[in-house]
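queue> pop job 88
queue> type: inverse folding (structure -> sequence)
queue> payload:
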């Protein structure tokens, strides 16, 4: 299974169908310009649903894509999300609303299954924190790391777990980072995440020490990062296996 985010333009659909003839494709749609594009091998039995609650009542926000699949008579649900970016209080609140909907969906799936559901939600969660000056008050400050820790805490309460990712050397320190655009105004940041039911066995490529492998610009020498951003994306690639 593959997932591409921020898909724009008809040419990407034609190219992917040519490159992956054995895959079936699912695409979100709406007034938003950037879509989520999912490809699933035809040997897998799947059912996809566009979930509008993840637009958080904003016309131009992106819906979620819920993909249900069955492997060896076992059901799995994967929710692909691309939620609100930005670091003001409204942006943060919209992310909160979307994440709470994801955790509530886990509870619903547990009830339907009468057991802990095999549920994963993942994607660009835009964990930027808050840096928003409020009139007549102190500046609200909530770091990206604090927002990520908050998600991990919520996950634990829903019998889920924030998956660990392969780290990258940033300024001599090993950090989880998935986004950077080369600008001096930003630093490499951890925006993309995988959250899974805590009973599931999630492994990185080659069964490494983390749950999720990272590919793309973080694997290159820093001098080559800008070339990667120009040719491909400012987001890294995330890879994991479900056992």
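queue> result:
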């Amino acid at each position: 299974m593959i997932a591409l985010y921020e898909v724009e333009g008809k040419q990407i659909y034609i190219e992917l169908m040519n490159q992956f003839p054995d895959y079936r494709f699912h695409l979100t749609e709406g007034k938003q310009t950037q879509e989520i594009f999912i490809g699933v091998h035809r040997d897998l039995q799947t059912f996809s649903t566009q979930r509008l609650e993840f637009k958080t009542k904003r016309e131009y926000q992106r819906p979620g894509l819920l993909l249900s699949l069955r492997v060896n008579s076992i059901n799995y649900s994967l929710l692909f999300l691309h939620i609100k970016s930005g670091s003001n209080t409204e942006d943060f609140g919209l992310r909160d609303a979307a994440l709470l909907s994801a955790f509530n969906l886990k509870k619903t799936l547990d009830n339907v299954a009468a057991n802990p559901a095999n549920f994963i939600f993942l994607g660009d969660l835009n964990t930027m924190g808050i840096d928003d000056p409020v009139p007549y008050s102190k500046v609200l400050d909530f770091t990206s790391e604090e927002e990520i820790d908050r998600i991990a805490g919520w996950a634990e309460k829903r019998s889920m777990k924030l998956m660990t990712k392969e780290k990258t050397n940033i300024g001599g320190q090993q950090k989880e980072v998935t986004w950077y655009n080369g600008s001096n105004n930003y630093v490499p940041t951890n925006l993309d995440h995988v959250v899974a039911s805590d009973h599931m066995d999630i492994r990185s490529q080659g069964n490494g020490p983390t749950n999720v492998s990272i590919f793309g610009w973080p694997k290159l020498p820093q001098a080559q990062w800008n070339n990667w951003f120009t040719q491909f994306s400012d987001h890294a690639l995330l890879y994991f296996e479900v056992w």
